[in-house]
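so my prof wants the structure for this chain in the tokens format not the other one, which i didnt know existed until like an hour ago. anyway here's the sequence
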Amino acid sequence: MDPQFKSGESGNRNYLDRNDYASLFAIPLSLSLKISSGDEDGYGAFIKFGYALQYTSESYDRVREYYSYETYDYYSQDYLLYNVSKIKWLKGFKTGLGLKYYISDFTYAITELEYAYFNIDPTNKTALALDRAPEAQLFSLSAKVFFDF
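here's what i got, hopefully its the right format
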């Protein structure tokens, strides 16, 4: 695995190697079963659970920065050494619970708390989160308002 920073000298110039310009892109997908209960006035509660997948793409660049200190000047220039990237489909599950309630005669709201878990299986070969972290988790709280005419 790359160390975070590595310094050295090449000729009369000093350099610093570092990981930079990192990006992470993820799209979670799930298929859930929702069990709900309610009364005749439309108020109710629900729970849901199901299978989840997450498409994850992650990358970073290994950059070498040459620098020098002149009399009154600082000089710095970056060069790309290489790029590290990985794309992976993560498997997991999703669960949640929520409430449905009326705000007025024509408006109702749904409040939901969800939790998603994805297993990663790290290899510790690079500094990517896909190689270092054992899992990815997501907690979300959502509030939705609907108008019913």
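also thought this was worth mentioning. The mean pLDDT is 89.
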